[in-house]
Amino acid sequence: MTPAPAGSRLALAVLVALVVLSPWPFGSAHLRTTQAIALVSLATALAAVLHDARRRRLQLPRLLLWPLLGLWTLAIFQLVPIPAALHHAIAPGSAAVWHPDVPAAAAVLGPGPHPVSLHPEATRRWLAFATGLVALALAAAPALRERRAQLRAAIAVVTGAVLVSVYGFVARLAFGDRLFGAWTVPTVSPFGPFVSKNHFAGYVELAALLAVSLATGLADEARRDAGRFSWIESRRARWVVLAWGAAAVLVLAVPVSLSRGGVVSLAAGLTFFVLLRAWSRRRKGLSVRALAILLAGLAATAGALFAVLP
Predict the structure, then answer these.
(1) Confidence (pTM)
(2) Do 203 and 23 contact (CB within 8 A), yes or no?
(3) Hey, which of 55, 179, 207, 292 would disulfide with 161, CB 3.0 to 4.6 Å?
(4) What is the pLDDT of residues 177-201, one digit of tens each?
């Protein structure tokens, strides 16, 4: 296999670094943090694409470019001022805000055309942030074709998420609802370095699914025969145990945060993972009885979670 371009490897390294580091500055909820992430992402993606294009090794995944172009076009369309009649026709809710019936409010906003977006500045910030991250991901995609790069990226993300989860456990016991023991968030319930427990659960659940996939893949590679636990005799057994330990920490961190949406999302992700796993093994001879046992186990686990969690 041809080695990945240097620009793509740089983009992957920066992308993984952003994933690992972004939770710590208050979950990157602060405006300055999101601006910094957008600038770093855009600059790195541009540098990586120009470097690989100059060396004629640019390998962007073209399949995703057209849907993303449509999404960006839609976002830009929301920022273009349009006449009142057209505004009322295509976005009556937004038009009611920009063209109110109260004369005093209409005089403040002005009679001219207005954009569909109710907060154009926030829309521009979102567009820059999303564009930077998507561009960085597209630039990093060729590097992820290498197994070693996939493994290193997965280990880095899972390790970073475990540190965030462990800190979340400790911070809840030591600091309660205060961020880093110093700041109080009056409107939402913080957890770990995040200003919201739901943000924490959303970050950790994604890493948990990645950890489960990593542990399962390592166990499959370490097996010496058809036995389910034959990987124990392999030299890589300690890495499999570490991966399953990390997965357990991340899976438990979501219900501990008391985020109901996070628990539902994690359960859905694990269910989908098990079904995909069962389907792939079905093609290798998995019996109908074994599939039924897997589904029953999933149902029992989900029922126990919903019964126990507050």
Answers:
(1) 0.81
(2) yes
(3) 207
(4) 888 888 888 777 889 999 999 999 9
Task: Classify burial at 108, counting beta carbons within 10 Å of its beta carbon; exposed 0-12, middle 13-18, buried 19 or more.
Answer: exposed
As given in the structure block, the two tokens for residue 206 are 């994604």
**CA–CA dist 157, 250 (Å, integer):** 12
Give the integer Cα–Cα distance in Å for 65 and 103.
45
For 228-268, the pLDDT digits (tens) are: 666 676 777 888 889 999 999 999 999 999 898 898 899 88
Between CA 70 and CA 227 the distance in angstroms is: 49
- Spell out the SS3 assignment of the chain: CCCCCHHHHHHHHHHHHHHHHCCCCHHHCCHHHHHHHHHHHHHHHHHHHHHHHHCCCCCCCHHHHHHHHHHHHHHHHCCCCECHHHHHHHCHHHHHHHCCCCHHHHHHHCCCCECCCCCHHHHHHHHHHHHHHHHHHHHHHHHHHCHHHHHHHHHHHHHHHHHHHHHHHHHHHHHCCEECCCEECCCCCCECCECCHHHHHHHHHHHHHHHHHHHHHHHHHHCCCCCCCHHHHCCCHHHHHHHHHHHHHHHHHHHHCCCHHHHHHHHHHHHHHHHHHHHHHHCCCCCHHHHHHHHHHHHHHHHHHHHHCC
Please choose, from the candidates 250, 248, 265, the residue with its C-alpha nearest in 3D space to the C-alpha of residue 192. 250
Residues 9 and 134: beta-carbon distance below 8 Å: no
Task: Give whole-number Cα distances, 106 to 11, 111, 112, 113, in Å.
Answer: 47, 7, 10, 12
* Residue 287 near residue 300, CB atoms below 8 Å: no
CB burial readout 67-83, b (16+ within 10 A) else e: eeeeeeeebeebeeebe
> First and final CA of the chain: distance in angstroms?
51
Tokens coding 31: 């405006």
